[in-house]
Each structure stands twice: as C-alpha cells, then as structure tokens.
Give the backbone structure.
Amino acid sequence: MDRRVSGLLHQAAGTAVRGREFSKKVPQRPVTLFFAVILAAGILVLLGNSISGSEPLPILDGRFDDWSEEDVVARDAKGDHAGAFDLGHVAFKTDDSFLYLHFNVGKILNLQNGPKSEGTLGLTLDLPDQRQLEIDFRQRRASFSNSPNQRVPWTKLDFSCLPTYASDAVELRVDLQAIGVKENEPVMVNFRGSDTLDAPFEVRLRECAPQNARALSRHAPNDFRVASFNTLRGGLSDPQRKAALQRLIEAVNAEVYCFQEENEEANFRKSASRLNHIHHTHWSNGCGIASSCPLTPLPLNLSRGVAAVCHLQDGFDVIIVNVHFRCCGYAGSREDETRIKQSGEVVERLRQLQAGQYGESWKKTPIIVTGDYNLVGSRKPLSILESLGLKPRSLVGQIDNAAVTWRGPPKESFWPGRLDIMVYSDELTPKNGYILDTARMKPSMLTEFGLLSGDSLASDHLMLVGDFEFAGQ
C-alpha cells in the first residue's frame, strides 16, 4: 500500500501512525464511525492500483537515488550519539516479503567493520510473535531474543546491505516473511548502540506485484558479452564443483570470461579448454581471461591482475583488464591501502598504454576493467578507476533488483554484499546485464538454459554479466 493511501485510511479511522507521532483514539459515535468505514472502503476502491503494489521498490545498489522524502519515517537529532554512528533520517519501504531500510550515520565509515573505539550500531525489530530480532552491525551478528546466544545465518534472513565500502548512508533489506511475519502484521523498528530513535516506528508487509525477470539473452545479436566470475579457490578444476560452474559459464555464452582465484595456470588452461567455444586464454597472478575470440596479451605487469586485447568479430577490439584486489579490512586499514595501491597501478599502466608506451595500436582502444574489487574499505579504489573516465555498470540480480555479488556460507559473519564490479570507457554503450543467481530463477528458465537451482552455490561469488556495443555502431 503506498504512503498516500495509508495516510488517508488512517485519517479515516481517526488515527495517525506515521513517523514518531502517534495520536490517541478519539471516541466516535456509531454514525461517525460508519461513515469513516465507508470513506475508507471508498479510498480502497478508488486507489486500488496503489494498494496492489504500484509504489516502486528500491534497487539495492548503494546509490539511494530511488528513495524520496515520502519514504522518510524518522529524523534523529544530530550530535546525540555515544559512538561513531549518528543517525539522521531513516526511511523504509516494504513489499510482500521484504523490509527495505535506508538511513544515514553522520560520517563516512564502514557499517560492518572498523576500530573498536567507534562502537557499534544495532537494528531491532519487534516481531508479532513477541520475539525481537537484533542485528548488531559491527559484531556482524543477528539473533532472536528467545535464543540470544544462537547466531541467525544471513541466508535465513536473506539479509544484504550496501554499499560495502565506507559511506555516510546505507540501504539494507531483510526478509520478514521468512521469519514468520505475515502481510499487514505490525513490526516495530528501532536502533540501539551508538544511537537510537526517540521512538520506534511501525512497518507492515504489503501486497505487491511480482517482479519481472531480466532476460538472460542479448538484446541485439551484435552486442558482445563480458562475464566476470570468482570461482573460489580454483573451482574450475574442483571435481565437486566444476560441472555446476561449467553450466553457469555456458549458459551466459559470453565472448570473454574473466576468472579470479584460478591460482594454478596449468589447471586453469586445462579447465578452460573443456568449455564450449573457448579457444583462447591468458593468465597471470591467479586471474585468467578466456575467450572465443583471439587474445593479444598486454605486458602491464599488474600485481593482482591480467590484461589482454580481445579481437572481436567485425574488426572491433576491446582491452580487458581482470583484477582481484586484496580482501578484508576497513577504510584506512592496511588492506585498504593495498587496494588503493593496486587500483592506482592499473590506472597508471592504462595511462601509459593510452600514451603509446605499449605501442601505437591500442592507444584509443575501449577498456573494460572487471573482477573482484573487494571494496570493503574505502571507495577510493573505484574512484581511482573513475578518474580515467571509466564508469561502473549498474548490474543487479536477474530476479531481485539487488547488486549483491557475494554471500558466504551459513556461519560467515560478513553479510552478503557487492564485491565484484565492472567499469567501462565511453567508447562503449552498456546494453543488457545482470548478476546470475540460479537459486532465484524459475524452474522454466533453469530448464531453458540447462541450469540447476543450486549451481550458483558452487562459488561464494555470483557471476557478473555485461553486454556492450561500440558507440556509434
């Protein structure tokens, strides 16, 4: 139900339940109550389209441009915090399953990690069954009040939060239906730890139209496709996982595949040679490029990456850089500084290439840099790549409108987020694209593309798929 309809209905019933303002019920005469009910019913009929779920849902990508003032439910005073987190505005939306929250925290920091001196922030959800779900962000832990010592896996909550890099605002989602909340049942929301709201606010699941799945196929036959996939510790040659990975790889039918964590060159080349339509490979530092088109290796000498020119059909060339930046840490940590250095190294080499230091042939060739960026610290590694004029692709799930590319096993403390990124230069126009997760696909689509619902579990990362055409083609 959209906010306008909800507000009218509450007014008709003689109550106001928005934000932190609650009005007391006023005794009404039977006739007045009768007309209030008639008015409410009329609003339901006249605005039925709104109630059935026409309110747009957020795309969970850490960008926030699809949140509006209408979604804001609370504004907390500045400077009333005890730790590093200082809540400002809080906004929410719901569908028939998920609660979506967007809030700012007063300064740029990592929600999931940081110095102990910064303290923590917790989210509390008082559920209809009298349990409370608490999510402690810095402890990276979810638990129910009736079993506080038992960690609730992020997968059970279908929880995710973006951006993974340091920011002064975040957006997250949690599946309320998965923990027993039914449509129109009240859930009270508040925060604890470094800061809290003056009063909780109420949310309810609402009827919502099902989302349409994105097509797996190209929009046009001349589009070329690049896929990026961290296969988790040499998955292409793992007997237990290679069949599932091969089905995923062949289902997307890309011209170029960029693999990370393929740490053994011989195993990578042998495994890649078994893939349909893959005839050319290039490997370095655990990163491999496999393609149906000829490759010319580029001697960029990257510490955590590999680069090649891919010679596509019709005489077009594109430079592919496949990276795997260092993991872990938080903004300002040693790991973060290493990622910044590795990203700077990529940009330095590409500037040299554009200046002709690697020959005249590739000075003006379009560029794609993709891979596992591990952006769990600052955003600076991505900003450095953007300084070269490269733009990030806004890829989200083929089904669920979330930019989640990584999710750990059930006991993993880090929640699902976006680690894998694809950036491209102005000479390219983005077309179709998505993040492939077979667990969310319908059986008919799985059958159509020769996939099984558990195939994406063969890695902790999900595959990025991006189609492009050459500008002016």
Observations:
- The longest strand covers residues 98-109.
- Residues 224-470 form a domain with the Deoxyribonuclease I; Chain A fold (CATH 3.60.10.10).
- Confidence is low (pLDDT under 50) at residues 1-53.
- The chain has nine helices and 22 strands.
